[in-house]
Amino acid sequence: MNAAATPNRPTPASGRLRVCILGSTGSIGTSTLDVLARHPDAYEVTTLTAHSRIDALAAQCLAWRPRQAVVARPEQATDLQARLRAAGLATEVLHGAAALEQVAADPGTDAVMAAIVGAAGLPPCLAAARAGKRLMLANKEAIVLGGALFMGAVKSGGAMLLPIDSEHSAIFQCLPEDRSAWASRIDHIVLTASGGPFRDRDPATLHSVTPDQACAHPNWVMGRKISVDSATMMNKALEVIEARWLFDLQPEQVRVVLHPQSIIHSMVVCRDNSVLAQLGTPDMRVPIAYGLSWPARIESGAARLDFLGLKPLTFETADAHRYPALPLAWQALRAREGSTAVLNAANEVAVEAFLGGRLRYDRIATLNADVLARLAVPETAAASVEGLLALDQEARALARQCLAELSA
Ligand SMILES: NC(=O)C1=CN([C@@H]2O[C@H](COP(=O)(O)OP(=O)(O)OC[C@H]3O[C@@H](n4cnc5c(N)ncnc54)[C@H](OP(=O)(O)O)[C@@H]3O)[C@@H](O)[C@H]2O)C=CC1
Ligand SMILES: CC(=O)[C@@H](O)[C@H](O)COP(=O)(O)O
Ligand SMILES: [Mn+2]
Asked: What residues does Mn(2+) bind to (predicted)?
């Protein structure tokens, strides 16, 4: 196949890949800009988006001079537009959820970095997929919510879906470029999990954990929501579901092992029991650089592994007693389609409540399990975006009800 002729490996007149970053003010967004800054001749930033950090977005716009910027609300847009005009920038400032979809599908953009946190990222991801973009997916909640519908949009839109989540990038890096060869090669995959900040803590004491303690990840610096997910291992549960869809696997073909050093980012166990692993220092700029440059490789800024200076690489069982959220992934995958959307929605409500001081840490998994068990997913819910978004809302309402019951 002529790579240059495919829509996701475009050759714009400038010769530079035109990149939209959804969620540019976050951890993945800023790491993406860090990688892009190393390659000014290869990439151009067309679009930056933010939700609450408008000052940070303004600074990014001044540095990158994008064609478009998106914020959440009209008054933020008016304010930012005035600031950028005063600085002599022609950037058009848009606002709202529809604007995110618009910029994700913009014909003047070749590649979309999906770095919004949470279910809010699904509609713009779908828009990018339908428009045939190179879609670099960090926003795991979007694929957990979207499931088969998300993958269908990627296929029918002719998009190139590139995993950014470190584990899924690792698996992707271990697999051949020809996707039709994947099924015959893979026996199963092993996602590595750090175990988070409470790997050695007595589970009976987890009720008193504070948000700052939960966000103190041992190996990665990330946004607060994913940091809490890593502590509870809901992050790994979401990643199991994400892997099921990205690599078209059965639930039992996705396994998890604790690897506290986060040096092996995940592994493919092949049919012949050969194991392929991807290793590196824990730095998201590696998967981001690979998403931007695939199938080539570019400098990322990450430190190289020093094998002689490494601590021993160790492995442990991911214990369901310590991490009760983890088994919910397989439970949801085996239940009616749409159940993973329910689990994700419940978790978003639970984590927000925990970060806001309204839910005990050790009740996040309880709330998620309760919502998953109590909500009867309608048969056709997963057949349309509207059905999935309605299900997401229903699960959030039930989660808020469970929250009130747990706090009573
Ligand atoms: N951080 C990491 O290392 C990794 C992250 N991921 C995944 O990548 C995604 C982003 O994570 P991370 O960068 O850590 O998160 P952050 O919280 O650091 O950043 C989130 C970004 O999304 C924006 N945002 C938040 N809510 C909304 C909304 N409702 N609508 C539109 N934009 C919104 C934020 O804007 P603002 O800042 O202006 O409020 C910010 O730009 C998550 O899905 C996470 O699971 C996956 C692997 C690793
Ligand atoms: C960097 C990344 O991809 C995160 O999802 C990371 O995996 C979190 O680490 P654990 O969930 O393994 O603690
Ligand atoms: Mn990950």
From this structure: 165, 167, 239
**235 Cβ closer than 6 Å to some ligand 2 atom:** yes
Which of 168, 194, 347, when mutated, tests ligand 2's pocket best, judged by the most ligand atoms within 8 Å of its CB?
A: 194
- What's the gap between Cα 311 and its chain centre? 28
Angular region, 46: left φ>0, alpha ψ -120 to 50, beta rest: alpha
**Burial class (CB within 10 angstroms; exposed 0-12, middle 13-18, buried 19+) of 364:** buried
Whether pLDDT at 26 is above 60? yes
Residue located via tokens 């008054």? 75
pLDDT (tens digit per residue) in 143-192: 999 999 999 999 999 999 999 999 999 999 999 999 999 999 999 999 99
Torsional sign, CA 169, 171, 172, 174? positive
**Does the pLDDT of residue 316 top 80, yes or no?**
yes
Record the tokens describing residue 18, joined without a space: 């035109």
The protein residue with its alpha carbon nearest to ligand 1, atom 29, reads 120
